[in-house]
Amino acid sequence: MAAPCRTRTLQVVDTEFSADAVEWCPVEGWHSILACGTYHLRPPAATDSRGSNGACDRTGRLYLYHYNEDQPYIPLTEIQRIDTAAILDIKWCHVPVAEHPMVGIANSTGAVEFCRLTGSEKKSCMLEPCFRVDLSAQHLALSLDWSTGREQCGCPLRVISSDSEGKLNLFSIDESAPSVHVLNQWEAHKFEAWIAAFNYWDTNIVYSGGDDSLLKGWDTRCSPETPVFTSRRHSMGVCSIQCSPHRENLLATGSYDEHVLLWDTRNMKQPLADTHVEGGVWRLKWHPTCDFVLLAACMQSGFKILDCRGSMAENMEECIILSSYVLHNSLAYGADWSRLCPRDTLTATQDSAAACQSSEELVGRSEEGDERLNLQVQNLKIIYESPTATFDVILDEESEGPALLLKAEGGPKLSGDPDLVRGSDLKGSSDLAGGPDRGGDPESASGSDSGAKRPNGVGLDRSGDSTRSLDSPKEMSIVATCSFYDNILHVWKWEMSLVTPSETPSTRSPSERTVESLH
Asked: Helix, strand or coil for residue 485?
């Protein structure tokens, strides 16, 4: 039986534009630094006063934050913002480059930019542009990955990037300059190459996923015209791939088809496990220390945390969903684990104070949040423009009535109910009732469902048993996630009991436990 888990919102931050990429710095000594990228589609009237071409303009912003656990209610502080082209992916190098942390940024001008972090860790560090590779002004850089996923030093530094033309681009980083060199470029997919990633155990091998529903492997030492393998196991566009940094030959992939697949890379004909997560899987992130825990950004269905132990050791065909952090008015995109080792900063006194908060205040906050979010959803216009239908969104905040929803004219479509994708069936939520830049209710897992579940949604165990979840040994992690439409960056804590329910005596009757498990 799965271990009890719970989630607690620590802070929500208004990013002004739609947030789609978030990454904690993995370099030792800089774990409290968080980068967040945003994407905004401006309508023609805002970009061309003469109305000459009617083209929309993609713009964005890069945020840099510092996380301070000594500020338990507002731990995240903004330390820098940079206006840029729209950002589609952010990845830190796992090791220092020329003695500095370095981040790569894939943007809407078809460029991959590299910035280094300078200064001290605490609130005074800044990102400085270092170099960039311009791939194609007519296409978008969609993703990137570093070859340093196992945090090994002394190996050649390489970066793989994918773009909206279906190409992969392989770079090498020269630390002595520092500088970047293009090693190879090749056509990998007929449509958008949504994702590219390294095999961290053999960095000559890279993987790619495209809107043609294909998952491919490539040996960069050989001719790029021929992939090592091609899998058609996903039924829609493949948009997330990550190799496990802990276990050799373990690969996770996700798709618009709403399935997370685990693979043994020695046999890519059949996946080890197939888990339905009820939303297109935009990003996958293995936990930095727990080798069996996988974080998934599942677009329409929020963020899911999966337990992959059974699939790896017991040949289970599905992973167990340990926790869900649910969003009701947006799409889940960026997600990442912090490498910080959090302490339980909420004392029993603070917990009691939070629990005793008046119901009237909570109801008022909920209604206020519902009104704000529902107004935003009413004024939502979605423009499906090839090649990035997933991202091309305009928020019309000045219209007096509900905006008309525009039908898709081309390009890839999201999986699931098309009406849900267009935002017409989105429901109000009290998730963000605390307001932007405020700490969340520390005791409530607002917007979350953290009972361990089988993929079909049947509860195995609730996380609300305070005796079991608070007194038993725990694995605690800080998670940052971000979402489209509502322009929100979320920081939350995830706790997993290291003692399973079967190992813990219970004084409740079997009927009480059965009723609880079904809620």
From this structure: coil
Locus of tokens 């190992």: 503
Q: State the Cα–Cα distance between residues 199 and 369, nearest whole angstrom.
A: 43
Answer yes or no: are the C-beta atoms of 158 and 198 closer than 8 Å.
Answer: yes
Task: Please list, residue by residue across 460-475, b when 16 or more beta carbons sit within 10 angstroms of its beta carbon and e when fewer do.
Answer: bbbbebeebbeebebe
Task: List residues bridging with 452 in a β-sheet.
Answer: 461
d(CA 329, CA 209): 27
Distance CA 210, CA 220 (A): 18
| Structure-token pair, residue 93 | 């190098």
Q: Which phi-psi region, left, alpha or beta, contains residue 164 (left: φ > 0; alpha: ψ -120 to 50)?
A: alpha
Give the Cα separation of 329 and 326 in Å (integer). Answer: 10
Spell out where 56-165 has E strands.
Answer: 57-67, 76-85, 87-92, 102-107, 111-118, 126-134, 141-146, 157-163
Confidence of residue 412 (pLDDT cuts 50, 70, 90): very low
Q: Within 10 Å of residue 427's Cβ, how many Cβ atoms?
A: 10
Between CA 255 and CA 236 the distance in angstroms is 6
| Dist. CA 170–CA 463, nearest whole Å | 44
186-200 pLDDT per residue, tens: 999 999 999 999 999
User: 171, exposed or middle or buried, with CB in 10 Å at 0-12, 13-18, 19+?
Assistant: buried
Q: Please state, in angstroms and rounded to a whole number, the distance separating the CA atoms of residues 456 and 447.
A: 19
In this predicted model, what pLDDT tens digit does every residue of 29-77 receive, in sequence order?
Answer: 999 999 999 999 988 765 544 444 556 789 999 999 999 999 988 999 9
Other Cβ atoms less than 10 A from the Cβ of 156: the count is: 12
- The DSSP bridge partners found for residue 24 are 34
- What are the tokens at 172? 């090498």
pTM, full prediction: 0.77
Length of the chain measured in residues: 519
**Nearest residue to 76 (alpha-carbon basis) of 484, 406, 479:** 479
Largest CA distance in the chain: 74
Phi, psi for residue 117 in degrees, rounded to 5:
-95, 125
Residue for token pair 């361990």: 452
Q: Is the pLDDT of residue 426 over 90?
A: no
Q: H-helix or E-strand containing 24?
A: strand 18-24
Q: Quick: pLDDT tens for 218-237.
A: 999 998 889 999 999 999 99
Is residue 275 within 8 Å of 455, Cβ to Cβ?
yes
Is the backbone of residue 352 left (phi > 0), alpha (psi -120 to 50) or beta?
A: alpha
**Number of helical (H) and strand (E) elements in the chain, helices listed first:** 7, 33
Contact 515, 461 (CB under 8 A): no
Residue 369 pLDDT class (50, 70, 90 cuts): very low
Give the mean pLDDT of 128-151: 95
Write the pLDDT tens digit of every residue in 16-26: 999 999 999 99
Q: DSSP class of residue 372?
A: H
